[in-house]
Automatic annotation (TrEMBL):
Its cofactor is Mg(2+). Residues 11-161 form the Terpene synthase N-terminal domain. InterPro entries: Isoprenoid_synthase_dom_sf, Terpene_synth_N, Terpene_synth_N_sf, Terpene_synthase-like, Terpene_synthase_metal-bd, Terpenoid_cyclase/PrenylTrfase. It comes from Coptis chinensis. The keyword Magnesium applies. This is Uncharacterized protein. Keywords: Magnesium, Metal-binding.
Amino acid sequence: MAEVYVLRRMRANILKDEVTHILDHARDASSPFALLVLIDDIQRLGLGYIFEKKIRIALGFLIEKNLKMEESLETTTLYFRLLRQHGFKVSQDVFSIFRDRQNSFKESLGQDVKGMVRLFEASYLGLEGEDILDEANAFARRHLLDVKGNADLAELVTHALDLPLHHRITRLEARWYIDAYSRRKDVNSTLLELAKLDYNMIQATYQKDLMETSRWWKKLDIVMNLPFSRDRLAESFLWSVGMTDEPQYSYCRQVITKVIALVTIIDDVYDVYATYDEAKLFTDAVERWDINAVEQLPDYMKLCFFALYNTVNEFAYNALRSMGLISFHT
């Protein structure tokens, strides 16, 4: 197993170098649209964290060189969304060229289905008071609902309408996009291979994270002793992946998972089982963070308090140790 991992890692490193070259070449080419599409593909394939610096440099290059954007809906919407996603300032006025004399979006744009999808995705990155983007959202949604029955684009349109792009969990989006990207005529085999390889390696990391957290959960034995409570460890872990999906954040995912799992148990204690007086005692014990306060608690609450107390103190110890505030030298 270790040998397979090493071989995968070596292959991934080779592919990363090749994709870096592809990205550099696209940046130096004269087509902003090709560069924007490549960046979007990299991000949606789940590879954005690998090429984050390169992507920011490429986007900064577009701004610095003030390259003339093609007056196409796809190019403009991609330009707007990607820049805003990466914290660059870009005005909603870039969409003015697509509006008529009545300041409404031109109805002819509705024939460009891919452009409508990209406009719909970009519209969710509007700021308060940006009326053009509010109008863009309603306009794009109306036209996308009209073309939803188009067999060739049905999956793309349905996916866009189901949930805004930036609300999706990166790893789940990557899984869907890998399949969708593999069916495209302009698929880049190097990029696709790296995406599949990276997805599988990160999946293995997640499995290891969940396995370690499961051992902690079983050791607590809290669900067996509190049969009224919910056993939601796997769901809690999925939340953690949604918050910190990059492979290097294993410890962070484990911390988030433990916190959510414990909060779920304590929520059930308050809502399902505890009396008002018991809930007050437990709240007081937590607020005081005093181990001696457990003497006043019923047995089932003692179990909850000890689980919370020991877990949180372990977090604090690990944090202090990582910052060098705890020394093992005398």
